Amino acid sequence: MSTRRINFLLVEDDHDHAVLVQRHIDRTRFGNVIQRVKDGEEALAYLRREGPYVQAPRPDVILLDLKLPKYDGHEVLAQIKADPDLRRIPVIVLTTSAAELDRLKAYNLDANSYLVKPLNHEEFSRMIEELGRYWGGWNQPSEETAHHY
Amino acid sequence: MILSASEDTTSPRRSVGPNVVRGMAIRCLLALTVLAVMALAGYLVNRGRTRLLTDHATLVQLAGRQQALVSRLGLLIQRLGETSDANERHTTVVNLAELAQQLQQVHTTILYGNEQQGRSAAPPAVRSVYLDKPHELDRQLKQLVGDVRRVIKSDDAETSPPQSVARRIAASAGDIHLLDSLEAVLTAYEAEGRKAHAELRMLETVILMLTLWLIAATGAGVFWPMVRQVRSETDQLESANAVLDQRAAELAATLHELEMERDERHTRMQTMARVMEDLEEQRGKLEREIQARQLVQEALEASEQRFYGIIESAPTAMVITDQQGYIVLVNAETERLFGYSRDEILNQPIEVLVPRHFRDKHPEFRAGFFVNPETRRMGAGRELYGLRKDGTEVPLEIGLNPIEADEGLFVLSAIVDITERKRHDEILRQSEERVRSIVDSALDAVVTMDEAGNITGWNPQAEVVFGWSATEVHGKPMADLIIPENWREAHRRGLAKFLATGEAVVFNQRLELTAIRKQGEPFPVEIAISPLRVGEHYEFSAFVRDITARKRAEEEIKRINKELQRKNHEMQQFVYTVSHDLKSPLVTCRGFVGLMKEDAAEGRWNDVLDSVVRIERASERMGDLIEDLLQLSRIGVIRNEPEEVDVGKMIHSIAEELADRLQQAGVTLEIQDNLPHVFADHVRLAEVFENLLSNAIKYGCRNGNGHIVVGGHHGEGEVQYFVRDNGPGIAKEFHQKVFGLFQRLESNQDGTGVGLAAVARILEIHGGRAWVESDLGQGATFWFAFPTSADRTMNETKRDRREQLGMSPIGTLSAGS
To answer: Quick one: which of A115, B447, B681, B689 is 20 to 30 A from A139 by CA?
Structure first.
């Protein structure tokens, strides 16, 4: 079992919301926000290591807000899941809506989990912990292996 | 003649049997074989001769050669004897050796022949020269050759003095006979040759003679008889043919005669038959005539009887009067009708039966009839009355018929009591009158049509609905007047089908169709058609209702329904979008409240303060958002009267209000001159400019040297204005989205995301449009346009243009979500 912290990519346009998420993650001691981007375009550029993100490390988890400027969060989710390189990165969708329909919409696009804002700290911590246990180190295929498939 | 053919001794039939032919063939074959043999013999002989000549020539050549060699040998020997030069002697010796060899070869060839070269051995005469005495040439030559060789071989050939060698050879040469012997060989050859040649020649001649003779014999013995035979055969055949031809001709002539006789008889028979037929016909005719005359006679008698019978029993009153007007005959019905017995009125003037007020005129009319006596109705167009015995008048119809009789001209009047009929006519007229008034007063157009498709009825309402007057349409084809062109064919076909089969789909139901008015304009009608059977024919009547107004109302209802549905849907979308966006600041508040609780419990007061500030800001934002939304909702609900707006002045005053912000952002504002005036809601127009300018400052001028331009000009049917910035610009894909509610292109906290949506809505209400021209890095120009038509109301939204731009009423508020 790895004791490495989980690296998050946070895709959130609202600054306050981003701060909230950041604070939550800091308090769990399990996570680490390695990058915050403000819209879908930047998120994909980061993931694909384009432009200024050429050296970017690969995040363990993506936290994706659905309400983004320019490109809708659903579009970004679809793009990530369609990219063979990126689709194995778990995506947790963050949204203000708890509606059943929205949940289904996100899951239909292969979101791995669905969290409603504002985050409940217990719930969130537990999730991060479990992520840490499940995804940390030995359960995750190495990048090279992943690349081949 | 034909019957006796078989007994005829000079029968032309002869069989050219197969035997004769075979004999001829054999003879020919033999002759040819013999000739062939002769030819072959001749050839062989010739060949022998040639061979002989060749051999002879060769032998002569060889013998000659032999002679030459011997001579040469002699010369060489002599030379050997004369010279003492060692080289020369050596050469001579060598030559001698060669010569000796050659001599031997030739000798052998002559004597024994050469199989390789095909030369036969020498003939006996020559051989005897070689082998027998006196010559014994064989021995001589061998000796010579042997001597020469020995001499050459001996060591002292070259070294010994030459003469001695020569002498020795010469000595060993012996006889001088050599040359003679050689000569003898030649002679012997020649003799042989000549002999053989003579033999052959004789043989040749013999063969030639024989051949010629055989040819002659064959010609005479074989070919000549053959030719003769063939000729006789053909002669015989020809004569036989001639005989046959002759007989055939005779037969043909006989046949022809017989045929002619037969034809003649046939013709005679036909003629007789025809004559008989004619007689028969005439007899028949006479009989019939007699019969006919009899019948006519009977008929005449019968008809007279009938005539009187008919008159008497006729259901109409019949009165016959003479030229003076006296009644000469009446029937039973007359008695009944007028109430007189016949005795009472016979021989009375007809005026007795005429009512008094007509009596005076009546004789005149009578006279008038006789001027042109023809069967006709009396007093056509006039009402006629008769006078009964009891003084009552009765309405009549009278038909007059002139009758010629021997006694003069009479008039037969047929008189009909039309009291009943008049009564029925009146009833009918009344009922028609009733129907007519119903139809005429109907509020629907009533049109009737006959089987030919022509209009037979057209009520006043029809005149109003279609525009044609009754006189214009009566008798004209209905299809051409009120049915639209593209349906006329179908109508005609339907009518024809019904008349033919009795089937139709249009009857006795309400149909909604299109008809055309007099001017040709189409309009919707509701029509009910019924077929009426009138005697043998059909008539069709249709009740036609102009439903233009109704249709319009239906359409309007549909449209309003759709509009309502759409507005409903958009309202739902709007609520959805708004609720989502309002949640955002709320989430911030709740989130930080949560954090705050923890922080407060653990005394992290800095963090608490931070959270409080954020909450404050978020709630402020929420307030702004709600405020802007309220403003948006007011658009279109609170209307101000449109007025002429001096746009230049308006913008300048807005610029003054924004002066501080402009200065703070380091933005310069340029307002173009001569901005066109526009007829619009002053307040809303100001809002549009405020929003656009605010956006331009916020988003278009970030780098500190922002520059905004405001301008406008007249377009086609509209007035256009723009607000341009030199900011980062907007990518083409977001040009539509940007006008949507809450659709932001970046996460700038300043804006509420309502501004452009408000602009779009305002323009929409005015029947105008808004759009953006921009490219990434090229700044952005926001355009909007107001239509210049002065008589439009503010609420009249031009749907087409909106749909063209992909904008729908509240759709702008939910676009992109």
So the answer is: A115
Q: Do B587 and A19 touch (CB under 8 A)?
A: no
E strands along B322-362, which residues? 327-330
In this prediction, residue B286 carries a pLDDT of 92
Question: Which helix (H) or strand (E) covers residue B473, if one does?
Answer: helix B470-473
How far is B509 from chain A, CA to nearest CA, in Å?
50
Only one residue has tokens 């008015």, namely: B517
Beta-strand runs (E) in A14-137: 31-37, 61-65, 91-95, 113-116
pLDDT in tens, B129-140: 777 767 677 777
Are B73 and B100 in contact by the 8 Å Cβ rule? The answer is: yes
pTM over 0.90: no
- Answer whether residue B2 shows pLDDT above 60: no
First and final CA of chain A: distance in angstroms? 24
DSSP assignment of B198-242 equals HHHHHHHHHHHHHHHHHHHHHIIIIIHHHHHHHHHHHHHHHHHHH
Chain B interface mutation, best of A23, A101, A116, highest count of B Cβ atoms under 10 Å? A23
For strand B408-417 and strand B317-321, is the pairing parallel, antiparallel, or unpaired? antiparallel
- Tell me the chain B residues in contact with residue A96 when contact means C-beta distances shorter than 8 Å: 580, 583-584, 587
Residue B364 has pLDDT above 90, yes or no: no
For chain B, the distance separating the N- and C-terminal CA atoms, rounded to the nearest angstrom, is 130
pLDDT of residue B119: 62
pLDDT tier for residue B747 given thresholds of 50, 70 and 90: low
Give dist(CA B9, CA B229) in Å, integer.
Answer: 21
Position B807 pLDDT exceeds 60: no
Q: What are phi and psi of A97, to 5 degrees?
A: -100, 130
Q: Nearest residue of B to residue A97 by CA position?
A: B580
Average pLDDT, rounded, for chain B: 83
Whether the Cβ atoms of residue B450 and residue B537 lie closer than 8 Å to each other: yes
The residue length of chain A stands at: 149
Tokens at B595, concatenated: 């954090």
Closest CA relative to residue A93, chosen from A139, A142, A43, A57: A43
Return the SS3 of A77: helix
Q: Can you tell me the mean pLDDT for B48-62?
A: 79
Query: How would you label B754-793 residue by residue, b for 16+ Cβ within 10 Å and e otherwise?
Result: bbbbbbbbbbbbbbbbbbbbbeeeebbbbbbbbbbeeebe
* Tally of residues, chain B: 817
Asked if B562 and B808 touch (Cβ cutoff 8 Å), the reply is no
